[in-house]
Amino acid sequence: MSYNNNEITEKVGIINGIECIAENIYLYKIFIGDEPSPIPFYTIRLGILGQSLTRPYSPVNFSGGIIECIIKIYEEDRNKEMFTPQLKKLKEGSEIRVIWYIHKYSIYNTHSIISNNNDTVCNKLYNNNNTEYNNNSIISNNYDTVCNKLYNNNNTEYNTICMISAGTGITPMLQLLNHNNPTNPNFIFIYVYNSNSQKIPLINHNITYYGIISNNIQHTDIISNIQDIIRLIINKPVVYLVCGPDSFVYSISGERKGAYGGILKEMGVLEKDCYKL
Predict the structure, then answer these.
(1) CATH no. for residue 231?
(2) CATH number for position 64
(3) Residue 14's domain spans which residues?
(4) Which is deepest, 15, 19, 163, 254, by most CB within 10 Å?
(5) 135, part of any domain
(6) Domain count for the chain
(7) Quick one: 152 and 89 in the same domain?
(8) pLDDT at site 201
(9) Is residue 85 situated within a structural domain?
């Protein structure tokens, strides 16, 4: 069942899978029926039937009418209205509100992107001790500009995307990884997470992966480790994407919705080559 209001469609979804992938972090699979697969970057909002509160999430996959979302469950605070403690009470087969969907940014302007096999998105990749360094990498700030440069066969200014994320900031990155294009850019993935046991859901793709475990490590040491990786690619044609908690984004690239800054600016990366998701 769905309802359309001001071009935003609300659906009643069915939870058909819940998988724990880390402490208090779950992969939810929600069936909403057949819909065209949106172009990254987009969000949905989830809510409990009969309640007004909704929360935004970036699906990591949409295939066969099933949305896959990585969601962190927080402890209930009786002084605040919270969504995830209520979500935790729902089981497989439960109905859930799905507001489908809100487009955040367009990954491209005039160039089409061919979707990969969505079934591979949630293959689990553990910390694989991959220490191979790729010679090309970058992060970027204007998606229309970035995608014109990445997906236009006649323009090869950028051939590598460097993704820097922490926690559930991985989710918009997975949206991007789940799309392919004729130029096949390289991906460098720097991911900060808090446990060796955490499963990292990454698509089978041309990825050079660096996992940084944050447990018992000072914030300054985490940032220093990221700087060491960026130094290897700083003079290469790379576009940088940054997503994670506000404090993390601030350290890497400045305030999420504010001025450009952080270590990328300090290291000489231009603002036009960095985008905060």
Answers:
(1) 3.40.50.80
(2) 2.40.30.10
(3) 9-101
(4) 163
(5) no
(6) 2
(7) no
(8) 65
(9) yes
Under the banding of pLDDT at 50, 70 and 90, the label for residue 204 is low
pTM here?
0.76
- Looking at 46, 68, 101, which one is the last position of a domain? 101
Residues 6 or more apart whose Cβ sits within 8 Å of residue 90: 15, 48, 96
Whether residue 203 lies inside any domain: the answer is yes
Q: Is the pLDDT of residue 128 over 60?
A: no
- Each residue of 62-111: pLDDT tens digit? 989 999 999 999 999 999 999 999 999 999 999 999 999 988 766 543 22
Distance CA 7, CA 10 (A): 10
Terminal Cα-to-Cα distance of the chain (whole angstroms): 31
Residues of the chain above pLDDT 70, percent: 72
b/e 239-276 (16+ beta carbons within 10 angstroms → b):
bbbbbbeeebbbbbbbebeeebebbbbeeebebebbbb
Whether residue 133 is contained in a domain is answered as no
